[in-house]
Amino acid sequence: MQVHSFLHSDTETYTHVLADVQKQVCAIVDPVLDFDAKSGRTGTTSVDEVIEFVREQGWELVYIIETHAHADHISGAAHVKELLGGQLVIGQHITEVQKTFKQIFNFDTSFRTDASQFDILTDDGEILALGDITITVMYVPGHTRADMAYVAADDEKTVVFVGDTLFAPDVGTARCDFPGGDAKTLYHSIKRLLALPDDTMMYLCHDYPSKGRKHCPTTTVAAQKLGNIHVKEGINEAEFVEMRERRDATLDMPRLIIPSVQVNIDAGHFPEPEDNGIRYLKVPINALGK
Questions:
Q1: What's domain 2-263's architecture?
Q2: Where are the beta strands (DSSP E) in 132-239?
Q3: pTM over 0.85
Q4: Looking at residue 209, what DSSP letter applies?
């Protein structure tokens, strides 16, 4: 098993490539599309670096895995699939997120809320095969209703892609104030992750390093239990929920939540062009945030 991580610097998001080198197959986890909110222009420079890496290795792309419908970056999954193929994977509870945001954005009846935009819908305990690597699905809601972690194992090691449930120990944990989020639920999801063996490598979806530290895509279960500022050992459920809810009340909405959510719940697809050939995204007024 190999894992290669690519930092999208604008959103501080990590895209990971998980590979069975012997079988020459791989999965891409959480690819990112470049997006300039000031101009509304998209780009593929960052995700093309990931695509070119996979091509250089000669690997077949089997899965494009989304840990959840991201609110801080636009998914590059559609671009990856167009160029490399692969099946697009997301947790089956994405349907709940689609229904919630279909109402917020007032999408018309053509918008599907059955998750049929995706290829594979995963549920807790299911297993995906990637060569000789088994990828076990772990349902970890709280940040959103649809978050999944993916535990990858072969004969040599076990790693887990945690999405937004956990960040580096000095950063803490995901916010829970989006529609469908819940701090108590997140606490129990995190406890499931921290029940993995201490030496399990955790691959992060984001890193927001404290001053003096460089970006890093990984941590371990042991490091989280010892030092996560929000949820290390000794912090109980009530303490976590009080901290998380108090902190969330002070946070602004993510910079790219409005374009990101409406694209990502549609499997990374932008709306169809209107009669002038231009695609448009909606901006709901006074519907999100405080």
A1: 4-Layer Sandwich (3.60)
A2: 133-139, 148-153, 158-161, 201-203, 218-220
A3: yes
A4: P
